[in-house]
Design brief:
By secondary structure, the chain is an alpha+beta fold. The protein is built from four helices and 16 strands. The protein folds into two domains: about 120 residues, Rossmann fold, CATH 3.40.50.10330; about 140 residues, Sandwich (Tumour Suppressor Smad4).
């Protein structure tokens, strides 16, 4: 049952986004009159975690960056509907909108599909890191839909750490930091860091495995034991030997740590309930899946 909708929109004073918001608002005004549903609006820059607590649906109007920037605040029980406010299919300067299941042209039909309960529900796993400081304090970073970066806060200095995973990986490394990616997130950054072209993944593993790579690791240390890159379901534990480091979720919020802290990364973060309408998220990346 949808009673309360929150619309989070991209506001950068470009006419195309203002026009999309006006189109969405006009359609929602009709639905409010028909169904009595409550609708609130908030610019991306103003939204807070508390704004999502009593929502039955979050409509994100913008592009993938808008969605990943606010999805950190959305729990696994609240469905999210992405609406591409500037589709690249209509303008080559627009947004690709990988996670955006709708657009202003299709919004009227799609929002009614959500209200009627016929939208496609994609439950997407998310990465999360837990930092334990030398004093025993534990901090969890924001869940990441695409990727997590663990690195020296000074990117011109090497990231120094001990890395452990399962029985096979236990070594010290100097790199430019470690990048962790969900299955769907590999197209955002991961494939630009390491060459995994031609690698396909079993459908049965995509909800409980993640990708790892040590960025710019010296070639002599790029072993095939999972210490360079790996597709794994085991937690990765990093012990920092850096004066200052951070975990960055989806390129947005930073969680900082100091030397001696341990950072445990896994794919046990709260999943995201993302709605689509004409195809599933897996349909969009069928070329990465084993037949």
């Amino acid at each position: 049952m949808i009673d309360n909708i929150l619309v989070v929109y991209k506001k950068n004073f470009e006419e195309i986004h203002d026009q999309a918001l006006e189109s969405i608002r006009n359609e929602l005004d009709i639905i409010v009159a028909e169904c009595g549903i409550s609708v609130d609006y908030s610019a991306r820059e103003n939204v807070r975690r508390t704004d999502f607590i009593e929502c039955d649906l979050v409509v994100v109007l913008g592009g993938d960056g808008t969605l990943t920037s606010i999805a950190h605040s959305v729990d696994s029980d609240t469905p999210v509907m992405g609406v591409n406010s500037h589709p690249r299919s209509e303008d080559e300067e627009g947004s690709y909108g990988f996670y955006m299941g709708s657009d202003p042209t299709n919004f009227a039909a799609d929002i009614r599909s959500v209200i009627e309960g016929t939208a496609i529900v994609n439950r997407l796993p998310r990465l999360q890191a837990e930092i334990e400081t030398t004093s025993g304090n534990k901090i969890r970073c924001d869940p990441a839909l695409n990727d997590l970066l663990v690195a020296n806060t000074h990117q011109y200095q090497p990231s120094k750490y001990r890395i452990q995973r399962g029985q096979n990986v236990d070594c010290k490394q100097y790199s430019s930091g470690c990048l962790f990616s969900t299955f769907l997130g590999q197209g955002a950054w991961y494939r630009h860091v390491v060459n995994i072209e031609g690698t396909n993944f079993p459908v049965s593993e995509i909800n409980n495995h993640y990708l790892f790579v040590a960025r710019d690791l010296p070639r002599a240390e790029r072993r095939e034991d999972g210490s360079y890159w790996e597709w794994t379901q085991q937690p990765t534990v990093m012990t920092s030997d850096m004066h200052r480091g951070y975990v960055v979720s989806d390129g947005w919020d930073e969680t900082h740590f100091t030397r001696g802290s341990t950072i445990t990364i896994d794919i046990q973060g709260p999943d995201l309930q993302l709605l689509t309408f004409r195809s599933t998220m897996l349909d969009r990346v069928a070329n990465w899946l084993d037949n």
